[in-house]
Recover the amino acids of this structure.
């Protein structure tokens, strides 16, 4: 895969303010990452355009580069998604009357199961390859594009971002837009790593989720809550559920087989079918956050945050 030319901010102090609190962002204790001096939010010094981001998520990302095979992980991924659907079912009084939109829907595994529960499910992804797969396999109402450019003509009851927010160039703008396209008291559900977790703090620069240019931002429970509140949401749940992963994926991540020099080992692992088995995995560093849009006076008529 051809890597995009990525512009780096090279000074000790970023020219961009913190996207959580607008404070000054400077060097952090983690090499290559910056930290807000006011709220502690940790981010990269990368500035990527939509086209640069899109070029990262071709077929190679899903089949061979990050995942040995996203398709091969389907059983575990869908098991995780069904658990999240169970959680959403508990929060929503009548999902059969609700519409759901997923940002970063990838191959459509979540939407494929969500469509039996919700009145209408739709989604979007930056990856043309992923959207093609979602349409071919599940005939879903999904499109390739930039959520920030999507017309604000529809309103949704639930908006989901599963393991997506850390990949976005401007998660603050996505969450502000989520507030605008959600119905009053609508729900925002997301998962992302927690860099404030014990495991992340113990692992430091070696934490498995520090992975630029794919992961551009590193939230903690505190900074995610602060961003959601600034964008007009009330956080109603932060949990750290186990996720199911195949033994192959755990080996793949644990041994850092992302390096091309391990290509022979990856091809060997792909042939061992006993590694298909899914096992629960929990280092309590993956947050499952549910927030509810507040219908308060802090939002203007278009849902804009007057501070932002
Ligand atoms: Zn900050």
């Amino acid at each position: 895969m051809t890597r995009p030319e990525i512009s780096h901010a090279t000074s000790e102090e970023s020219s961009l303010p913190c996207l959580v609190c607008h404070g000054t962002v400077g060097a952090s204790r983690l090499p290559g990452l910056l930290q807000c001096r006011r709220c502690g939010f940790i981010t990269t010094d990368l500035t990527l355009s939509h086209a640069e981001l899109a070029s990262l998520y071709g077929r190679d990302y899903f089949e061979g580069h990050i995942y040995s095979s996203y398709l091969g992980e389907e059983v575990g991924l869908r098991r995780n998604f069904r658990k999240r659907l169970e959680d959403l079912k508990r929060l929503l009084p009548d999902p059969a009357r609700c519409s759901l939109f997923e940002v970063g829907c990838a191959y459509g595994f979540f939407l494929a199961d969500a469509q039996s529960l919700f009145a209408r499910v739709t989604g979007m992804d930056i990856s043309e390859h992923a959207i093609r797969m979602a349409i071919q396999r599940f005939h879903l109402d999904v499109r390739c594009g930039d959520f920030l450019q999507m017309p604000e003509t529809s309103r949704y009851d639930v908006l989901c971002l599963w393991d997506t927010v850390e990949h976005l160039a401007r998660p603050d703008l996505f969450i502000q837009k989520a507030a605008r396209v959600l119905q009053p008291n609508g729900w925002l559900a997301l998962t992302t790593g927690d860099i404030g977790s014990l495991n992340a703090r113990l692992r430091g620069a070696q934490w498995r989720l520090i992975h630029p240019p794919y992961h551009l931002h590193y939230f903690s429970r505190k900074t995610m809550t602060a961003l959601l509140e600034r964008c007009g949401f009330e956080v109603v749940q932060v949990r750290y559920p186990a996720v199911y992963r195949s033994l192959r994926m755990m080996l793949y991540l644990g041994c850092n087989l992302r390096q091309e020099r391990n290509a022979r080992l990856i091809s060997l692992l792909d042939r061992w079918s006993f590694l298909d088995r899914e096992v629960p995995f929990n280092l309590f560093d993956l947050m499952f956050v549910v927030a509810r849009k507040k219908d308060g006076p802090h939002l203007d008529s278009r849902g804009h945050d007057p501070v932002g």
Residues 1-11, 297-308 have pLDDT under 50 and may be disordered. The CA atoms of residues 82 and 247 lie 20 Å apart. The domain at 7-242+282-293 is CATH 3.40.50.150 (Rossmann fold).
